Amino acid sequence: KRSPRLKQESLSQVSMFCCRSGKEPGEPKVVSAKYKAMAVQWGDWMGAWKAEEGQTDVEQDRLSRAQAAFGGETLARMKDINVLIIGCRGVGVEAAKNLILSNVGSVTVWDPRPACVEDRGANFYLTESSVGKQRAAECLAQLKSLNPYCKVEALDAEEAQLPSCLAEANVLSTGRGYGAVVLTELLPRDTLTGLNTAARSKGIAFMLAVNMGVTASIFSDFGPRHVITDEDGEPTQMLAVGAAEVVDVGQIVKVHGAKEGDKVLVLSLASDHGLQDGDTVVLDDMRGELAGFNGRQLKVRRFGVLSPNDAKVDIKDVAVKEALKSPTSEVLANFAKQYDYYKSEFDASGATGKFKQREITLFNRLVIDLDSADLKKWSSYKSGGLVNSVKPAVTKEYQSFEETLVKTANPQFLDQEAWHAGEGCWVQLAIAAALRFRDAKGRWPGLLDDGDATDLANAAKALSDEQKDQEGACWLQKVEWGFPSGEPVEDIEPIQAKFKRFSRLFAAELTGLCAYLGGTIAQEVIKKTGKFAPIEQWIHHDDACLVKDVSSAGAYARTRYAYQASILGPEFMDEIKKQKVFLVGCGALGCEYLKGLALMGACTGKDSKLIVTDMDRIEVSNLSRQFLFRQSDVGSPKSTSAARVVKGWNPELQIEALEKGVGVTSEDFFDDQFWMKQDFCWNALDNVVARKYTDRCCLWYGLPLLESGTLGTKSNSDVFLPGLTKSYNDGVESDANENQIAMCTLRSFPYLPLHCIEFAKQAYFSDYMEFAPGQYESFRKDMQGFFEQLDAMGDAEQFKSLKMIKGIIELQKAGSIDFNACVKAAFDHYCKDFITSIRDLVYACDEIEKSSGKPFWTGTKRRPVEAKWDAKSPPAEALEYLYATANCYAFMWKVPYVRNRAEFQRKIIELNLQVPAWVEPTAGAKVDSEEDDGDKVDPAQIEALKGELYAVDMKSLRECEAHDFEKDDDTNFHIDFLTASTNLRASNYDIKHTERSTVKVTAGRIIPALATTTAMICGLVDIEFMKLVLGMHKSEGALDKFYNANVNLATGSQAMNIFRPEPAIVRKTQLPGQIAEFTSWDKVDVDGEVSLEELVKQCEAKLGGPVLRLFPAGNDKVCIYDKSQVQKLTWKIELQEGGKVEIVPDDVYTAWPQLKMAAQMLQKVAEGSAAYKNFENQVRGAAKSLQAVKDTFSGRFKGPASEAYIAAARPSDEEAEKQKYFDTVLSKRSYIPLQVNMNTPDGEDADTPLIRYVFRN
User: Fold this and answer.
1) Phi, psi for 13 (deg, rounded to 5)
2) Alpha-carbon distance 168 to 160, whole Å?
């Protein structure tokens, strides 16, 4: 996919090399003293020269994906949080890992207890030599290695002293106290409540995350007062102002809270808003007398009009939406006319009752609350301005641990259905009972100890009885639809059994639940910044179907797998060792899954195998989430690096790492034999196309598929079970961006920073750095082939391609290609894009304004101003643009870079660059002011350009390499170019400038990604994998044992939800054949080599209807059989005596339209004449062609179906590599996957399953 990245620590040694090609331009590294002396006052923000001089902000690079999720302000606040983590078993090390990767200020871990061998089942940083040594100390070195920018230490204190430790005011010399304390195991009640009390008194967030067997519980307490600045993490709205008018309330105008006759300011917006009455906004980018409103927070109200019901106005209607773009005064006048008309009709009708009317909210209008003095100022409004929505701060009060442990009547459960049934109550009581057990016996319940289980169950029942008379308390009462009934549970035995099971497994941990808890609780800590809503105190999870009734761990006692064997049984361990798992992807998700598999002991048996594949190499930005990698790994393959780490954790792991993509181009490697060896497929992918492909493979081979994905704080997971559940492909997910910006807005009338970024990426970079050199190289390497593929383009694309190629050729004709030539090319773009085109646009639009008599530069159409240029003292923004652009051209032409800014500035001044004289555009010049069907190009211009290029001396042309956009490589000038281009365009249109980091996220389409979310969702999927190993997908009621998940860690308790998988979608063929219905997992088998004719007949017999087309599965562009070809066997073209032509049926004319005239003319022209012979030849030629079609099809139709497939699908000899690949794939298969097109009796397209045609053994 990409060239290997250079390792960060070696940049200073290799910076003279070309960043993408690895070729040495030959530029001397020593910079002349005269250049050093020149003052440089531009480009401080640029990344290219910083990378050259070793000044790259690696910490910032690591966090680019987190910044996309949190924003820079939250990241800065996170550096102020010092966290104390108590306990360093599975949950503790997971929480610490995620917080360190998230880059909080510091993490202090406390756990002086000696590690036991069982701890290694969930703590990945404990080794064999760690047993008997302090847990925290043994994990410390590895935790520190995760992130050099986060302080990590172990706390040396007695358990009883922990509450007093929270008073520390200078944690790890940061100058700050603790911001959060996280308990990852239960402590004695006095210590636990003491910590909670101390935390609440000092404004420290207090969290608890504990795993007891198959039960996982979270408690969150942000104290008596916590301010939430962003409850959901969703982006705020930026709305462009198109007009501002003062309107009188009354008659048809409705504004909530305004009286008849009140005057209000109504802003017309370029897009609809989603604001409510009373919401807050901040005005920005106002000009002139209104500049004083910039930065002010103001309340808003919706703007509505009364409309008669009978008018049936639909504001979503295209015509209505277009009418609403008019000035508010015109819109109101139109609504008033409509209202008056229907009201007069009603009055004239003499109908009784009230005149029916409704209020319509105009969502492209907004009322700003202003006093009368401010209102008057808005008469000066001309154009521009932004309205930014502001999320209101929410202050919440949270209760203490002691209080909520009792006074939470129906604690939240991760399974929403179970929560509504009150399932969280018994877990809450079990935790309270465990604390009482510890107080009474001085220890916690023992693993698989039946006596302790009975004692804890009795204690829990007693607690329930004690609390049932307390208002709002938790006790064993019936809960219906989430509401406690006040009536006791009738059958207590099942709950008593749960208490006992909880006790027997209290000491055990499962790595999946530890990962879930560690990810969730780490995200909870980050909410100390005010970003996102905390969990509403308690949330529980319990997955009882994992538990087997065992009395011991058997042969796995006193091993790292003892806890797992105690829960799922020794037989489970025997089974999990045998597994053959295919893990696709080794990014953030893949690292987490590899960790889980290694800790679970999966694929550790003799004949087992864990295969992981990923084509990518490690980049700096991966290090904040992909915790198996370190700075020294940058540039190395992900799969092999990750495999090395987890193999070190568990030497028994049978792992094979590949660097191959999984898709239609790798089926020669990932063939039938490969897929049929696997027990499961596990996706850890980041794109929809790849996910759909692996899903299709699992459907074909009948394999269970584990699927998951994250987007910032949002995540989902799915279990796809053969024959039981819907498949991934049954969904409608797409990578397409739904929010498209009108091209006329991008080209000519931008009004938002986003518009400038998008145009810089889509037009400037894509055209100059990718499209132009790519087209030129196609032309240079194969002129004839280039012109052949050119015809497939539209006229506008052809013209652009030819014009850009001509420009590159003219650059070579102008002289030798050196860095000065690169500068001149960059300056040409500067003049064209930011000076000349602006002059042209202003001139043309001013002419429109003069001829129409109407103001043109109104609303969001800003009158642009050209960029400045002074050859002797170039503006800073111009130098930044030229610096980035010229060096991008240096890469394309393989000439030495000039990275030193002083040297570059000297070159610019010495070249004395001048802006070309401007010539007025010709009359009628096109202005892209509205959406149209695309650019109209005169075909004569295209032909003229073709002629010029045909005459080029190809031998004189030199290579020009296209850029491969890479957002994470600062040495390549890409983000610098985009930032400079974005802000020059913004300056043209008086739009706010954008920071480099924002340009990088937006133009680079950076997907928000967090270590916390990844760990959490992967932990839940690990548990589902265990169920597959247990064979639950093959058991009765399988769907009621598995969970899918949909979790958003930003919204607290609102979106913490797991649920049962959806059953397979049953499709009906609507055909009368043997197969009336099917699912995506089903196939129709046709066995044995048969003729194509027989294959079609069998498909028709099985499905019940005529086959219209037969084609390879997933590729309907290749046709193996078409029913119309059979019909052609009866076609007839026969030239008879006397020039008579027999043509049967008339459909023949659709294939050979010239026959109609030929047949007519043969009856009219003289036999033997030249014209006669010409028409005769036409008929004979068509007849010959028809016979060839008949012969070819008949041969295929009567011959083996496999040969018909090969004849249709096999690439031609001109595509030797593709042909070889096709042959290799087919040679390994005994079957051909096919699809058919059929119609139902009603003439609709029939839904049909895939066909598996097995043509050889």
Assistant:
1) -85, -25
2) 16
| Nearest residue to 785 via CA among 941, 954, 961, 965 | 954
The 3-state DSSP class for residue 817 equals coil
Q: What's this model's pTM, rounded to 2 decimal places?
A: 0.88
Q: What secondary structure does DSSP assign to 622-668, as a single string?
A: GGGT-TT--GGGTTSBHHHHHHHHHHHH-TT--EEEE----STT-TT
Asked whether the bond before 1145 is cis by omega within 30 degrees of 0, the reply is: yes
Give rounded-to-5 percent helix, strand, coil for the chain: 45, 15, 40
On the 0-12 / 13-18 / 19+ scale of CB atoms within 10 A, 1164 is exposed
Helix, strand or coil, per DSSP, at residue 458: helix
Average pLDDT by consecutive 10-residue portion of the chain (1257 residues)?
A: 30 27 34 49 84 75 87 92 97 98 97 97 97 97 96 96 95 95 97 97 97 98 96 89 92 93 94 92 90 93 94 90 91 94 91 91 95 91 88 94 96 94 96 97 97 97 95 94 91 96 98 98 97 96 96 96 97 97 97 98 96 95 93 95 97 97 95 96 93 96 96 95 95 54 76 92 91 94 86 87 94 92 96 94 90 84 92 95 96 94 94 94 62 66 89 91 90 94 94 90 88 97 98 95 96 91 95 93 95 95 94 92 88 88 90 88 88 90 90 89 95 92 96 96 94 93
Whole-number pLDDT of residue 21: 31
Whole-angstrom Cα distance, residue 336 to residue 344? Answer: 12
Number of residues written out for the chain: 1257
3-state secondary structure at position 239: strand
Structure tokens at 806: 């001509």
Tokens of 1104: 């019940």
Please say whether the dihedral angle defined by the alpha carbons of residues 764, 768, 774 and 779, taken in this order, is positive or negative.
Answer: positive
Place of tokens 């910076």: 15
Question: What whole-number distance in Å separates Cα of residue 266 and Cα of residue 363?
Answer: 11
Report CA-CA distances (Å) from 664 to 661, 667, 693, 697, 700. Answer: 9, 6, 8, 10, 14
Question: Phi/psi at 41 (nearest 5 deg)?
Answer: -125, 35
- Within 13 Å, how many C-alpha atoms sit on residue 478's CB side? 8
Distance CA 642, CA 30 (A): 40
Neighbours of 1029 (CB within 10 A): 20
Instruction: Find tokens 């209104």 and name the residue.
Output: 290
Distance CA 682, CA 1021 (A): 10
Q: Closest Cα partner for 1236 from 1125, 1140, 1132, 1096?
A: 1096
With beta carbons less than 8 A apart as the criterion, state whether 294 and 314 touch.
no
Element (H, E) at 1019: helix 1011-1029
Q: What is the pLDDT of residue 734?
A: 52
- Res 5: pLDDT: 30
Counting DSSP H helices and E strands in the chain, the numbers are: 45, 36
Max intra-chain CA distance, the chain: 121
DSSP one-letter string for 145-203: HT-TTSEEEE----GGGHHHHTT-SSGGGSSS--SEEEESS---HHHHHHHHHHHHHTT
Angle between helix 795-813 and 772-781 (nearest 10): 80
Can you read off the two tokens belonging to residue 1015? 């760990």
Unique residue bearing structure tokens 């002011």: 929
Residue 60 has what pLDDT? Answer: 81
HSE toward the beta carbon, residue 1085, CA cutoff 13 A? 8
